[in-house]
Write a structure and sequence with these properties.
With about 140 residues, this protein is an all-alpha fold. The chain contains two helices and no strands. Helix 1 packs across helix 2. The longest helix is centred in the middle third of the chain and has 83 residues.
Length: about 140
């Protein structure tokens, strides 16, 4: 047997035609209108200056068209910066409650560590205490 995929079923001609119409009006038509507007905006200054129009006016217009994409793409980092600032603000609002809970957890850990460390060193302290009692009762010899 070959590893060919199963054949696709035939398309419904009515829905396919409807899809093509929708694709034209929702994708290609707005794309074409935008392209014509952009080409007109690019060609209009050249034609106006060639007919003896004011050069500085059209140079300023062309400069605006050159700056617009940079302004548009600078909105993305600006939105990220604004979102980050908003996130930090919300984080600062919630942090005191979180830190109070965390302080309680660390206080509980501190108490448990002290309890278990006291239990761990208790035999050593008892042995040293017993040794100190013996030393107190029995006089020590001084070397001659």
């Amino acid at each position: 047997m070959s590893n060919l995929p199963p054949p696709t079923p035939p398309r419904n001609p009515e829905t396919h035609a409807q899809h093509r119409r929708q694709m034209f009006w929702q994708v290609f038509f707005p794309l074409g209108v935008g392209t014509v507007i952009m080409l007109g905006a690019c060609v209009l200054p050249v034609v106006a200056v060639a007919r003896g129009g004011e050069v500085s006016k059209w140079a300023n217009t062309s400069l605006i068209w050159l700056i617009l994409p940079a302004m548009f793409f600078s909105l993305i980092p600006l939105a990220l910066l604004g979102g980050s600032a908003y996130g930090v603000l919300k984080l600062f609002e919630k942090m005191p409650g979180w830190m109070f809970r965390l302080q309680g957890i660390f206080d509980l850990v501190r108490l448990k560590v002290r309890e278990y460390s006291d239990k761990a060193v208790e035999p050593v302290i008892q042995a040293q205490s017993f040794n100190a009692k013996i030393q107190a009762v029995m006089p020590t010899r001084k070397p001659k």
